[in-house]
Amino acid sequence: MTTIPIQVDPVDQLLEVGLKDLWYPICPSSLIKERPVSLRRLGRKLAFWRDHAGKLHALEDRCPHRGAPLSQGVILGDRLSCPYHGVEVRCDGVVTKVPGSPGCKLEGSHATRFFHVEEKAGAVWLYNSKNDVETPPPLVLPEQLTNEDEYSHFLCYAEWKGDYRYVLDNVMDPMHGTFLHKQSHSMAEGDSKAKFGIRATDTGFVFEKEGQRNVNFDWTEWADTGLHWMRLEIPYPKTGGPGGNFIIVGSYTPISPTLSCAFHWRVRKLPKGWERDTWRFLYKNRLEARHWHVLEQDRVLIENMELDANQHEQLYQHDLGIVRLRRHMRNLAQQQIEAATQTA
């Protein structure tokens, strides 16, 4: 009997679970309340909880004693008490108490991975460090999510049955809006033929239609500010209310090879006042349902693609942005693998 070895691509393995040393959105802030929450993200099972002051903490959801889920335990301020044998693990990963065997070598050891977390723009963000770090780099979000004087936004969160990289491809493909979303109230305009170009920015690049702007879904920006995010604008009819173009900021996180988190912030540029209030009222009462419908079209298509669809592609000029992004992501993964090898 001949055994055929299976070749595993380490670059693909790393990309599948998410690059290291980056911030990722994990879930809406409202998901984590008075009890610990267990979430699978970025190739790990993670336990999130709030201490008595409401501050958020995150540990790998595995007790260092026997591997039981810490998320099933009791919150003791900045510690979780494992439900299996009462082992207490602090938010920095240090075991502070072993009730069944006081003074054993497990006490005082740094035995559990911990992760830095922050809450911004209505979401929980986690720094996916390859090793524990005392101080993470700052979480730098795009202006549309931080400048509350000029912008207003709503967070739209969904989980899609598909590799998060297919979601990235979808957003980096402005041309699909002309066809898949052609019945949308904001995507019915523009030429169904186009030529695209790539323009570098300080933090990434813009993939855009040549000779067409503010007509349809005409461009996508990809950026790296210590987290990876994407941005696009859709021209709005006057019936969409004040605020100019409808802005969408997206960031995407792997749960597993067949499940991903999709975060979309829907944004309008409006100062505080009656115009902002009008748009927010209009959005919740009329526009939100329409945008969910558009997202559903994307979701259904992606969830019905074969897992290996990208191995059977025949790309053309409209796909230059996808090719650029994939190549860049692979280069980043390769650099991280080489750096890990050198320090091993």
TrEMBL record:
One annotated GO molecular function is:
dioxygenase activity
Transmembrane stretches, start-end: none
Q: Which InterPro entries match?
A: Cholesterol_7-desaturase, Rieske_2Fe-2S, Rieske_2Fe-2S_sf, VanA_C_cat
The question of whether Transmembrane is a record keyword is answered with no
Q: Keywords of this protein's UniProt record, alphabetized?
A: 2Fe-2S, Dioxygenase, Iron, Iron-sulfur, Metal-binding, Oxidoreductase
Q: What class of enzyme is it?
A: oxidoreductase
Looking up PROSITE patterns in the UniProt record yields: RIESKE
What EC designation does it have? 1.14.13.-
Domain Rieske: from-to ranges: 23-126
One Pfam family name from the record? Rieske
Q: What is this protein called?
A: Aromatic ring-hydroxylating dioxygenase subunit alpha
